[in-house]
Amino acid sequence: MHFILTNPTYTGKIRWRDKTFAAQHEPIVDELTFARAQAILRERGDDISRRRGNASHFLLSGLVRCGRCGRAYIGMSARGNGGTYHYYSCTGRQKYGPKACRGERLPQHKVEQAVLHQLAGIYRDGTLIHQAIAKAEAKARQQRPAIEQRIASIGAEIARAEQALERYYEAFEQGTLSAERCDERLSRLQARLADLRGQQAEVAAATPDERTHAPTRAELVAIADNLDHLLANAEPQQAKALLRHLIAELKVTSRAKIQPTYRVITDTVCAQRPKKWS
Questions:
Q1: Rounded to whole angstroms, how far apart are CA atoms 220 and 146?
Q2: Residue 177, C-beta contacts closer than 8 angstroms, at least 6 positions apart
Q3: Residue 252: how many CA atoms within 13 Å on its side-chain side?
Q4: Which residues are within 8 A (CB) of 112 and not within 5 positions of it... i.e. 6 or more apart?
Q5: Separation between Cα atoms, residue 264 and residue 125, nearest integer Å
Q6: Quick one: which of 276, 265, 228, 240 has its CA closest to 63?
Q7: Residue 266: helix, strand or coil by DSSP?
Q8: Beta strand pairing status for 64-66 and 247-254?
Q9: How far is residue 225's CA from residue 154's CA, in Å, rounded to a whole number?
Q10: Residue-wise burial string across 1-24, b where 16 or more C-beta atoms lie within 10 A, e elsewhere
Q11: Whole-number Å distance between alpha carbons of 181 and 161
């Protein structure tokens, strides 16, 4: 049952080299049901950083990593004389002690407010957004010839393999190729074709779009306003899902040095832009 709940084939897709692409067969499970199943599995998973974070109200769960030992930070709570304290803590230090990692604890409210304030500010300012889009467009133009050549090369190899399949079928029908040898050759060719089509789908999916629509200043300000509203009023799980679209990683070296890598998302482009703050 666990295999069915995690296999994208049932949603009309194929998995190739840890990536999924649209397939030709009809789905038997809709995308929403499949996504809900994945969310439930993550909630019940064995990964301590995900389990502890998803079960709480910590908005940055699963996004914070220690710059010292590379392990995840998780949200935790502790009682003291002043009440209950909420903070993010390095799992390396929690598990192995300060001799293994000296990653500092981060007060939940302060780090979340700092990240959200900076994130909204980046959209309101717009400079980094437009720089990221311009960089993505330039990279797309530079990569386009090589990608097109690669797609054409894979297509030509697929055509040759399909022609070879036809020749084997004809030879078998004419009796010049035994069933055993025909089956052996067809199996090799079909495996090769599946691999080539997977490569073709991967390259096509990774092809950057040069025709990116750069958002206007008003659109960026609207995104920032919506971001503020959603994060203030949404349920914790909804807010965390939104932040996973906007934040790639928060690397913590110390309380004074946290390096976020944000995802700049528009209708047609997703680029990353790191920025340091302290």
A1: 33
A2: 168, 171, 185
A3: 25
A4: 58, 59, 60
A5: 13
A6: 240
A7: coil
A8: parallel
A9: 45
A10: eeeeeeebbbbbbbebeeeebebe
A11: 17
Which pair of structure tokens corresponds to residue 239?
Answer: 């807010």
Joined tokens for residue 14: 């194929």
- Structure tokens belonging to residue 211: 């025709």
Helix axes 179-206, 127-173, angle to 10 degrees: 170
In the block, residue with structure tokens 């054409």: 152
**What ranges do the domains of the chain cover?**
1-44, 130-206
Tokens of 180: 């055993």
Contact present, 253 and 259 (Cβ < 8 Å): yes
Residue whose entry in the numeric block shows the structure tokens 């049952």: 1
Neighbouring residues of 145: CB distance < 8 A, sequence distance ≥ 6: none
**What distances in angstroms separate CA 278 from CA 87, 252, 269, one per listed residue?**
17, 11, 28
34 by DSSP, 3-state: which? Answer: helix
pLDDT tens for each residue of the chain, 278 residues long: 444 556 666 666 666 556 666 665 566 666 666 666 666 555 544 444 443 434 458 999 999 999 999 999 999 998 877 788 899 999 999 999 999 999 999 999 999 989 988 888 888 888 887 887 788 778 778 888 888 899 899 999 999 989 988 888 888 888 888 888 888 888 888 888 889 988 888 888 777 665 556 677 788 888 788 777 777 777 888 888 888 888 999 999 998 899 999 887 654 333 333 334 43
Q: Is residue 19 within 8 Å of 204, Cβ to Cβ?
A: no
Tokens of 149: 């050549």
Please provide residue 98's backbone torsions phi and psi, each rounded to the nearest 5 degrees. Answer: -65, -20
